């Protein structure tokens, strides 16, 4: 009896601890984001107030100003948004196509120096992007692709391909090779077997690779800030800098733009995560 | 007419030679079983016929056509894999119809063929499920259905039953045999289970280390094994082998003192002093009073039983001859205690003699 009781109590205590730990972790992750959102709706005085003002007041001033004309705190939001979108979407598509092909090749084919290539790709990922910014700047300037979408897309593709390869390789590896063999016997070419059987089965993996690539490009700042200059190519993270003047920082405006940047990323992740969770059961082969 | 022939077919994996020049001619409508221990090259051979592995050397023909360089889709074959390889993202119906969709058959024809296959295999209730929602036996059935939908020239099976439990395996074995009787296609079937081979095959191809050891009907392999490997692989329990030496022209002295006359089939083919293995099946060593009464030469032995395995209609008795463990069968069994000494009769006509050095059968 007694022992049962203590056992149950301990279980309860553990559960509570678990909950607290989870809460703390989530708080650490979420509060800065929440603070940004809150700040974007606050008058500047309140943002700067010390001690912080907890009771929320509500104003759309920052948004109004941001979308307003230049000179009155406005920034070319739509251009930045468009630039970000073009660069992220295009670089993600290309990175996924290349990365998926690579991942598939690593998973399915044997070739000379396979392990070497693989390690090489991963090592490439280990180089911090910023370290490359100066050489890239010089090369891009010489070639004449500085301050263009194309230049930035190129950089992001290079950044995202190794990770995509690594991730999709893992997914394709999990798919038994008998699946494409069965498809080939059923009349498919190798190409058809991939698109009609292996790709659909691995699509949750490809979707997660895509979201990672997209978010990397969408949020990247260090390289973009070096390689883009003008309204025609600056992405949203770089656009945030517009709110810093020599002696002042327009926190409210910055937060408002940051919110605009976070929302699409959140929405996209939310849409794709259903795919991720729906992840495929490999019931086609023996269970 | 869909004969399948293999001539001098060789498979190298890198430097490793997995299949050593196999020759085999399979007749139209024949049910051929490739059997052998793990790693002997059965799957490799089958996969070369399917076009899933390159053929390193030699020639494979299907229906008179050399198929060495044809991709699987142009060989008009179907294959059932050990792990079924059902498409996990498709329903049973889509799985069954996939090959016809790829072949761009019209919808009505696909529906008809799929329904027909579903009917044959009893899949009607399951058509809208995904493979993950099926039991092992049902998946097996779907895999077979997928194979028959396209009316191939040849069916290839690679250990299709080895993921099923024993009872289901027996049941599916019967269904495969029925299926063959019904559709009459050429079937090449790989298994490592000799019972499956015996029960299913028109002809068994027994392989070992990338070579074919013997080809023949189940009874040929059972009654006239070419060597000790065949003798111990086919049949359950495996053939008993006892070491011995020929003395004179008429007697084999089994090590340990027992002597038996040379079986008729081997007479005149052995020489004095030759080391041999003397082989006989449990069915041919039976206790007196618990045996089948058959004409023929017999030898009487007195042996001590060390272990019994009652199976109902018969009991397998373990005993020892000349230091070799030997199994005997007791019909209409009565309880036997370990240690009991019984009088046995050995049916000499059914015994085999193998050369000890080469392991080859000595037989006229
Ligand atoms: N892809 C491969 N690369 C290298 N060696 C291989 C490959 N596939 C098979 N082998 C080798 O070829 C030989 C024959 O293999 P195979 O798969 O044909 O055996 P099997 O008779 O089907 O055995 P099992 O009953 O275990 O399936 C084995 O020695 C195996 O190690
Ligand atoms: Mg095999």
Short description:
Chain A has 13 helices and no strands. Chain A is mainly α and 287 residues long.
Q: Assign an overall shape of chain B.
A: elongated
Q: In what range is the share of β-strand residues of chain B?
A: 25-35%
CATH topology name of the largest domain in chain A, in short, is MetI-like fold
Total beta strands of chain A: 0
**Structural class of the helix and strand makeup of chain B?**
alpha+beta
Arithmetic mean of pLDDT of chain A? 86
Oligomeric grouping of the chains: heterodimer
Question: What proportion strand of chain A?
Answer: under 5%
CATH class descriptor name of the largest domain in chain A: Mainly Alpha
The kinds of small molecule bound in this structure are: adenosine-5'-triphosphate, magnesium ion
Gyration radius over CA of chain B: 24 Å
Could you characterize what this model shows?
The complex is a heterodimer of chains A (287) and B (364). With 287 residues, chain A is mainly alpha-helical. Chain A folds into 2 domains: 2-65, no CATH class; 71-286, MetI-like (MetI-like fold), CATH 1.10.3720.10. In chain A, 72% of the residues lie in helices and 0% in strands. Chain A is built from 13 helices and no strands. In chain A, helix 4 runs parallel beside helix 7 and helix 5 (114-126) crosses helix 7. Chain A starts with a helix and ends in a 10-residue tail after the last helix. In chain B, strand 12 (251-254) and strand 13 (259-261) form a beta hairpin. In chain B, 24% of the residues lie in helices and 35% in strands. In chain B, the strands form 4 sheets. Chain B has a 6-stranded mixed β-sheet with strand order 6-7-8-3-9-10, with helices on both faces. Chain B has a 6-stranded antiparallel β-sheet with strand order 13-12-11-14-20-21. Chain B is elongated, with a radius of gyration of 24 Å. In chain B, helix 2 (92-102) runs parallel beside helix 4 (136-149) and helix 3 (107-121) packs across helix 4. Chain B is α+β, with helices and mostly antiparallel strands. Chain B has helices spanning 42-50, 92-102, 107-121, 136-149, 166-183, 194-200, 218-223, 228-233, and strands at 4-13, 16-26, 31-35, 57-62, 65-66, 77-80, 154-158, 186-191, 203-208, 211-216, 240-247, 251-254, 259-261, 275-280, 285-287, 298-310, 314-321, 324-331, 341-347, 352-355, 361-362. Chains A and B meet through helix 8 and helix 9 of A and strand 6, helix 2 and helix 4 of B. The structure holds adenosine-5'-triphosphate and magnesium ion (MG). Magnesium ion binds at residues 42-43, 159 of chain B. The site of adenosine-5'-triphosphate has 12 residues of chain B, from strand 2 and helix 1.
